[in-house]
Request: fold
Amino acid sequence: MKDSEHLIRLAAVFAGGLLFFVVIRSFFVPSSFGLYGHYRADAIKDVAALQVVHAGHEACEGCHSDVADLKNKGKHAHVNCEACHGPQGQHANDPMSVKPPLPDPAKLCVTCHEANAAKPRSFPQIVAKDHAGDVACNTCHVPHNPRIGDAPAPAHSEVKK
Amino acid sequence: MQIPVDGFMYPNEIELQWSVLIVLYPFLTGLVAGAFILASLERVFRVEEVKPTYRLALLTALAFLLVAPLPLQLHLGHPERSFEMYLTPHRSSAMAMFGFVYLWYLMAVLLLEIWLDYRKDIVVMARANSGWKKRLYRVLALGSDNISEAALAVDNHAGWIVTVVGIPSAFLLHGYVGFIFGSVKANPWWSTPLMPVVFLFSAIVSGIAAVMLLYMFTGSRRHRLDTRCVDTIARYLFYAFIIDFSLEMLDLIHRIYEADESFRSLDFMVHSRLYTSHVVIQILCGTVLPIGLLALTQVLHLSEKVRLRTYAVAGVLTLIGIFAMRWNVVIGGQLFSKSFLGYTTYKMGFATREGLLTAIVLVLMPLGILWGLIKLLPPWSDDESLPV
Reply:
């Protein structure tokens, strides 16, 4: 036994380390951890308290019914307003002070419609440079109802210079 | 920064998520596992010729093991999360379980074996030194002063048990690293059950080569190089390399014969973007050439000087080849699109968190730690090997 004493000391060091870990763990692991799953249950409350950034298309249509009517007749009927205009929760809460900027069609339209081998063939796609050169998409197309002839000609205010 | 892309890539594939640091991680752990397995040759399998490298191999394994998680920490950028991984372990996450594999290997195998093997030296150094050095060695000896024959016999027996447990642990450590890649079923370049085995054998090869080079370097600096020992290590390196190469070829033949839907895309990648790093550096310079050189030393009767130089060249080429293998697995697996319609490019930064400079520092760091460990726990006594 005397000749194994150093191994007992070693075992004591390991046991001490383990005890230290258990004590540390009790301090660091949040009390709500594991209540519902492998995460801190209080995180749900934290996330729920965050400000909502999207308004939802019903809120948009409440004020912009003319645009909604135009959009609902065309191919973009299923595209949510905020998919192009970005989150508008603040604008919906305070429409007079918070004015959203107009999207830039040169960047926005090609996000979906630039030709790409991975997209279904039935999806309308173009090589923007060949299709229109440097001419902005909304010179010819109305973004809310893009098929030419289906909607009145683009209003001057909608054309981004 | 514009990344050159050929053909079609999905948007989330264009920029590589796993950088050169993730290449380093399996490279460093491979050296650990290989060095430990070389050490166990002497301890468990009683290969007396490699005895002079036993302690050096253990210290090398420890030095590299201490640095092995750093590339991951730098890559993630949240070192505190590795601590959380221990606090709230998630058994379904293979990567999270790495922490436990790592801790087991570090604490229950390597440190324990080094401590048991060095205990007599530590006690002797505690007796011989004074001041802070004496206190340091006293702490390392855990206050014990007993180095009687019976106590050392206990150490020897316990050390043998630790090594026997250590061999499957070393296999687990590096087999696990291969498993991380091999189990990604969405990536055909990685997804093969052979991956853990291939990683394991390449780890053994790189570890043996690294310890051989370190022993040759330190031995020649001290003018005490046991050529018989180097010959034996080189022979084991040769055998391990043949098994490793056979496994890699088996994997390749299997892929070529199976020729699944990913084959044309991967084949094109190997013949274009990966040609230099895979065919030229990994296979020709890093595998065929060192195996050929090692084979020559086995077949021809070369002079000692020529033999040692051949081993040195073969060892360096081996390490380059194994690093290239890790590179081709990690980087190669991210260069092609999962649509099999395009390829992207890896742009490595220089003085960035995951850049080349960081990688170089991480490779050199274990050598610095090893130097410190050798100073603290000298792996040799001057009468153990023959002067050249």
Chain B has 14 helices and two strands. Chain B touches chain A at residues 7-8, 10, 83-84, 86-88, 90, 107, 112, 115, 119, 141-144, 146, 148, 150-151, 153-155, 158, 339, 341 (CB under 8 Å). The two ends of chain B are 55 Å apart (CA to CA).
